[in-house]
Amino acid sequence: MEQIRNIKNKQFIYSLSTALMVIVGYAIMQSVINANLASPLIKGLMVPLCIYSILAISLNLVVGISGELSLGHAGFMCIGAFASCIFTRYMKWLGNESLLIFIIAILIGAVAAGLAGFLIGIPVLRLRGDYLAIVTLAFGEIIKNVINAIYLGVDSTGFKFSMKDSLDLNLGEGGIVIIKGAQGITNAPRYSTFLIGAIILLICVVILNNFINSYYGRNIMAIRDNRIAAESIGLNASRYKLLAFTIGSAMAGVAGVLYAHNLNTLAALPKNFGYNMSITILVFVVLGGMGNIRGSIISAVILTVLPEFLREFSNYRMLVYSILLVTLMIFSNAPALKDFRENLLSKINFGKNKKLINKE
Amino acid sequence: MSNIEQNKNILEVTSLAISFGGLNAVDNFSLSIKNKELYGLIGPNGAGKTTVFNLLTGVYRPDQGEILLDGENLVGKSVEEINKTGIARTFQNIRLFNRLTVLENVKVGFNAFNKYNLLDAVLALPNKKKVEEESNGEAMELLKVFNLQDEAHLLAGNLSYGEQRKLEIARALATKPKLLLLDEPAAGMNSNETMDLMNTIRFVRDKFNVTILLIEHDMKLVSGICERLTVLNFGRVLKQGITNDVLNDPEVIKAYLGD
User: Fold this and answer.
1) B92 lies in some domain
2) Which chain B residue's Cα is nearest to A360?
3) Which of A103, A257, B185, B238 could make a disulfide contact with B231, Cβ separation 3.0–4.6 Å?
4) Per the domain annotation, does A63 fall within a domain?
5) Which parts of chain B have pLDDT scores under 50?
6) ipTM attached to this prediction
7) Residue B5 and residue A151: Cα distance in Å, rounded?
8) Domain count along chain B
9) Structural domain that includes position A238
């Protein structure tokens, strides 16, 4: 039974260290901010860091744990952002602004994005490999473009919807346009704070780690490792893949809610919800390690902060960024360096747990 | 278990056929296996033995024929449904969940029994802990049968070849099957390991009350443990009967050694 204890300890330490990392990271940054040591740039980065971390771990569930390459993750973020923002904007118009509204908005964002993930997942998860990647990429773009064409308004008689322009809504006295096509939602309430972001990230981390270390996570990883064998012992592969995809989408939706309420204006631009964003999230996941939740958060933080510090290089910023990215990739994934790291770790553990569960 | 039940046919296959393009991979294949029998399926390379396994487990859908497990028709069911009605298998080229631990590999096999709902899972409620403890205990019991208990914490991909084969059998047994299909269980094992495996297979049959159908090229293993045999050649049944009679049949010897 010592073996079981070993596995359990390992899982427990991993989950705990991930959660602690988030808490400690929050505590440090918050005290730095409180001591007035942080520049406005750093202060402004705190909520995006939480958002990108949530996006990275949610995509890791789909790509790393479930093993399906999805390139449309930003699309689900977009759905979460708009669904929740419509609600909070409407509530603001009614004169309701409170934390409770925001909590409800988070749930709305999660459910809307999860539902979209579920519906898109049914046809899409029948595809494998490259095909899946291409179709999810397309869906991501479709979501963004459809939202760009929507006009939604509200007045005393109720909601009004159009795909033409805002005049077509025929709003009555005192009505407002909630979504104004490509201009998006203006005057959105700003509820997102570093504290809320960190709490939500922590909740996502705990939920995800529990999920992975459960019956469900185990079955999903079994299907990833060998679909034929998994089916031969009675697992319904499509069902479990859909479950992972839906949960991943729902979490991306939550990240979208934070994003939407961090700005005054929410518009679906290629920059924030386009495939560039999906690729950026994928880079976080790959660099942090497939299936490694803690790694995803670390790489999301590093790769979000890094470009900001490179601003002084102005024109050469993206060049330096890409060189650093390649270097980091080599450092985190080269076999020789991996062995070196493992040896170092086993020395720290006095050889006790040497190569207990080594990767690969 | 009563004698009547002992003699009941657990698997009844009649005139099974499948062709790929113009090739009749399996043709007019019939087979009946009694409850708790150790049955061997042999034949030269390319005779269609693995194809028969794939038909029985639903990987391929037969062009014609009938498969009854304990009276239940299996034709048209999906792979996972067939597993749930009581057939589990191992693979000729080992298919383990390499990035999961040995223990987890077996625990995945319990998926139909040791369940809890999603809320228990994500919130780590007591019910999750309780069910996982049960699974751990049962899985260790199974691993002990195959002498894998000390490797429980290793990744399945890091086991030796022979151990991987044994783990595949353990995982299949975790689904509590009525019929266990073993596809070349002794492939790549030395004679000592094969002897061990023979004892384990017999032990498994008695302990888990399971019927076993196995494909094997190692004639020592086949003659050592199989009670009856079917010989396949070019997708057709060449001979069927008691092991010794079949192995000494001139036609069977000819199929194996040529003229």
Assistant:
1) no
2) B99
3) B238
4) yes
5) 1-3
6) 0.91
7) 71
8) 2
9) 2-309
